[in-house]
Design a protein that fits this description.
There is one protein chain. With about 325 residues, this protein is mainly alpha-helical. It contains twelve helices and five strands. The strands form two sheets. Strands 3-2-5 form a three-stranded mixed β-sheet.
Length: about 325
């Protein structure tokens, strides 16, 4: 930890941190990380391309999926550069403005993904609860308004963070806990009073991840209640099967965050390597796993992929 005796505002340098105890093996650690980055970018780009170009996928569920994929791509673009920069090139220094900008985009895209997951939960509830009016309720204009609301909320909740950081004093050199910048990390490194920053951060989390996760659980409770009212066992299973993909990505998104929050409440020096691993996984795993889950569970996505590759083969022939 560097001293606050020579603290500055807006001109600090932040040092990225990898895995404690594995400094000599960072080049080897970079191989799976870079592989995950490449697969995440390719997988999400392919899914987004399929949804945009295939008219059969212009349904509410897949339009919301395209929003989720766009959020994942934004999260990849926000976190992967410093991961690759640190693990592959060994560069550690990051200027304050770059760190604050990365922090804003990481949290904004995370809140967007959480909001899209809530919209997808509502989509599944409407499809099961009132299938006859499903198409009239979730029109393209309604989904565009939902997407715009998710984007505006993410921006408004995260805009105060980097602005309020400008007033704080930091040591000339500060060591981050991760290989990217997070709001809680930067606030913890400040030399001046951070009560307002901490309060704003807590409110933004409660109004995004906290609210969304509660409403998702409520949606699934209503889905379960609706499904139990269906008399045919076959129809019950069919209705629940439409929710499996979404439930998987909800668990993939929230469980690493829950594990990380638990680790932060125990002694950090005892679990430092595990905490850093969980912190990296909770940004790496969702963009990596979401395309895989939907390719495995969605027949329409698989058919779209197959049709696209067959058309390419015919064109080449």
């Amino acid at each position: 930890m560097f001293s606050c005796n020579s603290s500055t505002s807006g001109r600090s340098i932040f040092l990225l941190t990898g895995f404690p105890g594995l400094e000599a093996s960072h080049h080897w650690v970079s191989i799976p990380i870079n592989l995950i980055c490449v697969v995440s970018l390719l997988g999400n780009s392919i899914i987004l391309f399929l949804i945009l170009t295939d008219p059969a996928l212009h349904e509410p569920m897949y339009i919301f999926l395209s929003m989720l994929v766009a959020s994942d791509l934004g999260l990849c673009a926000s976190t992967f550069p410093t991961m690759v920069w640190f693990f592959w090139l060994g560069a550690r220094e990051l200027l304050f403005n770059l760190c604050a900008a990365q922090m804003f985009f990481i949290h904004a895209f995370t809140y967007m993904e959480s909001g899209v997951l809530l919209a997808m939960a509502f989509d599944r509830f409407v499809a099961i609860w009132d299938p006859l009016h499903y198409a009239t309720l979730l029109t393209h204009s309604a989904m565009a308004k939902v997407g715009a609301a998710i984007l505006v909320r993410a921006v408004l909740l995260n805009l105060p963070g980097p602005i309020l950081l400008q007033r704080l004093l930091f040591p000339q050199v500060s060591v981050l806990s991760h290989c990217y910048c997070l709001h809680c990390d930067l606030v913890g490194l400040a030399c001046s009073d951070t009560q307002i920053n901490s309060l704003i951060g807590l409110v933004s989390i409660l109004l995004s991840l906290g609210l969304d996760s509660s409403l998702i659980m409520l949606s699934y409770a209503l889905i379960l209640w609706t499904v139990l009212g269906i008399t045919s066992p076959g129809e019950r299973l069919k209705a629940l099967n439409t929710c499996i993909s979404h439930l998987c990505i909800v668990l993939i998104f929230y469980l690493p965050k829950l594990g990380l929050s638990v680790l932060h409440r125990v002694e950090k020096h005892s679990y430092s390597a595990l905490a850093v691993l969980m912190a990296n996984l909770h940004f790496l795993v969702p963009p990596f796993m979401n395309p895989i889950v939907y390719c495995i569970k969605s027949k329409q996505i698989r058919q779209g992929l197959l049709k696209h590759f067959q058309q390419k083969r015919v064109d080449v022939s």
